[in-house]
Amino acid sequence: MRLLPAFLLAATAVYAAAPRQPNIVFIFSDDHAYQAISAYGESRKLLQSPNIDRIAKNGIRFDRAVVPNSICGPSRATVLTGKYNHLNGFPNNSNSRFDGSQMTFPKLLQKAGYQTAMIGKWHLGSDPTGFDFWQILPGQGAYYNPPMIKNGEQIKVSGYVTDIITDVSLEWLKQRDKSKPFLLMSQHKAPHREWLPALRHLNADKDRVYPEPETLFDDYSGRGIAERDQDMTIAKTMHERDLKLAPPNQLTPEQRKEWDAYYEPRNAKFRAANLQGKDLVRWKYQRYMHDYLATLRAVDESVGRILDYIEREGLAENTVIMYASDQGFYLGEHGWFDKRWIFEESLRTPLLVQWKGVTKPGTVNKDLVSNLDFAETFLDAAGVAIPAEMQGRSLVPILRGQRPADWRTSFYYQYYEWPAPHHVRPHYGVVTDRYKLVRFYGTSDEYWELFDREKDPHELKSVYDDPGYAKTKAELEKELARLRKELKVPDVVPAHWLGNQGRGGGKKGKQGRQEQK
Ligand code: CA
After folding, report:
1. Predicted TM-score (pTM) of this structure
2. Rounded to the nearest whole angstrom, what is the distance from the C-alpha of residue 33 to the centroid of ligand 1?
3. Ligand 1 centre distance from Cα of residue 72 (Å)
4. pLDDT by residue (tens digit) across 265-290?
């Protein structure tokens, strides 16, 4: 007989009397902004997402779910390991490769008797480990007719990526061994750049004019060079393919016909108008919103199909269903798309969980929770002991309505990838309910910022040099140091953690030096 690790033996003893192990359905999208989920009630009312909203209605909506590093691969590595990127070895998307031999929650669930499946976007370089079945998109994946890798074998599938991921997820659910609990990770490519919608959803909004965010024309005054010198604006960074002024190359001739029927007349009108300045930015924002939101219609339909299956099969009472994105995203706020920043729209990710019979329907939670907590939550729900090396905390008590009195009130953030893509300077910081203390590091432009979200909800003005904040600053500095020590953050970041080009890339000279504090 194989000896069980000590923590599994302990888990068996502790949870011997526990009821059946719940199934776990983890639906994960890529770059889905909470601003584009109707359950979050954002003022622009950008998208009606009735199926994603069902999870919030049946369970709990987390309003302050944050990520430790707001980009794709690093977030995924954190979900799997329950650890920060300085410990799981995946700090950036540029040159990181996930070490699949390390401890992950799917492996622990598999050892505890779960059937496990990973379907959709993986984006971690190495092959998935800890899964009985996996079918993934290579790299970023394609929206139409995507190549996929099924248990190590390359295949090509016809259709639209979100539908395919849903179909394969449902097929796997149907053929599973019904005597065992399961973990299904159903991970979408959508709504990642370049935001290519399902053809059936082109013009689903009937040429609606989307409300603009208040900060679409942010001039970045009140903040430092990092905010001014990024490369992620709707105005300057979006290219022809992003804006659908050039078609994608993945379409069949029939698909291309449908594509052109929607975009061509609108593009002709755009070219004839010869827009300039703010009018041009406004047009780009409208096109971006059409495409981004249209890709999400298929994601919402997908969630509906999965929920319907779980309900139809009578599994709802014993299944934890979680919907989250790998991070947040800018939908024109500060003139931006993309993510990366410690600032609110990218720091926060949507998080909705239902666990019927356990979580009170319609609960709203405002605690600082994180994707760092997902692995711990799933293990705890399954009655598997949480390894001490994990750095988050199980959300199960919160799901049960028993919020621990000592829940975290501060959170550590660290971003590495520099300079490409998007030229966002590396930074770390501490986030609380009200404040953010941020340190830009790793370039010649090292400096601090402090934001007071209560007085400045859009984070437009650093008050780091305001003497009125001296006490707050000192407290936050102390908390930042405490967190860095507790989380084992190295004092010096190795150059290759910043990405392929390592240190440098910062603008040197007068402008940079002026920013140093
Ligand atoms: Ca992402």
Report:
1. 0.93
2. 10
3. 4
4. 999 999 999 999 999 999 999 999 99
